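LOG
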Amino acid sequence: MSYVAGQDLGGLRADLGALPLGSVDSAGVAWRLQVLEGWDGAEVRTDMQPREADHGAWAAPGYLGERPITLGGLIEAPDRPALEEAMDRMRAEVGLADTVLTVWESTPKQCLVRQSGRLVMQYQSDRIATYSVLVTAPDPRRYGTVLRQASTALPVSTGGLAPPVTPPVTITATTVVGSLDAANEGSFETRPVFVIDGPVDSPQILAQMPDGSVRFLTYSQSLATGDRLVLDTDAKSVILNGNASRRRFLSTPTGWPVIPAGSSVGVLFRAAFYNSGALLTVQWRPAWK
């Protein structure tokens, strides 16, 4: 049977790096995806301590663990050389480094995976082979494939009065607030990345949570023109200009902010002094359990 490049084979579809599982690649190789186990749920870490002289147990906080995923199916190639080349490509794509796995559901989702088990490929004929591989996503979340991003400058007031003035007077001024909203339509909390571009003095980020509480991130140093500070709320890292850790200069008295499932968070940007060149960018992806 011959196939057309890009042809959808029906059934499950996923991209493991550059491998189009569930469709036909540019070499005319059909990658059938017949097994997708583990995509439906991550492992769970929990602990129960039996109650002394009583029924039941005391429940400790529970957390999601890693997400092991098994992928399996058939490789169908036009001839033996094309099949061998396709198998070599799978060996190269399934590696110990991070690889993006995208599953094409009605709402496409992705995660970063690494090989965590032996890749098994067996010849069925000179044109067909089976494959099975275990990969694991250390982060259990399934993320939206589109990166969300929004930016804001520092707040500035315009209008008002300049002296001299003669009373009675009416003061009219407009404050342009340095704020934005970040929404997560997924079913699990997601953790944003904040990027601050200088120049800015002692920048502060305020995240107003859906319950009305506010979480503060305050950086005690100044950024010069061209400096970029990246605050990753998942890694709990603070990186200046791509390589220098500045975590010791960041205060998080109320904890790192997250964007809860099905909610939005209002983000405000402030600093010790106004500078028109300062910019805050928030990046995030909706997340599903």
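LOG (cont.) second protein
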Amino acid sequence: MPRRSILLFAGACIAIAAALAILTVVVISGRDASASREIASTGQPLVGGDFQLVDQDGRAVDQTLLNGKWSLVFFGFTYCPEFCPTTLAELAAVKQRLGDKADDLQIVFVSVDPERDTPQALKDYLSSDGFPQGTIGLTGSPEQIAQAAKVYRAYYEKVGEGDAYTMNHSLTVYLMGPDGRFRTAVAYGLGPDKSAKIIEDAMARG
């Protein structure tokens, strides 16, 4: 091959290599920027915050109720035919599996049905056999309930009219740390063993 052709070929190879290098830098930089955006946009969900409610003994309480203990917070109502009693019964089994660790755990049941769920109604309901002893029931005005649900990203909706109405609502149980901040979610229907493991792991992390 003539010397001139060799030089032209070598020059072309260098140009291609340089172009590929630039392209690689651009692609990698783009991925890094994308990853940075993902990291910046993720992180701990903004769950929990200020609320003003009333417990089953008629005492006014706020978010400081959660301070100093691990708390399982979930939203429901006393007329709930299935999900709420199932969740409460499962949480009773979870506390059994946690053993001594359950001493540092409280369960907080927030009503989404203030029209029917008076403090006394909550007290009667939560004293039912099979439900966790010491469960704290919270209710309040419609505005107070709406605020509590908002800060916990909990959904609820009244369905139907008259005495036969019901409430649709989210089923997530929120595990809050002793500092009152969200740690993790416990999905409905996991079963006592898996739920207890999630709680134990969170407690171990602090």
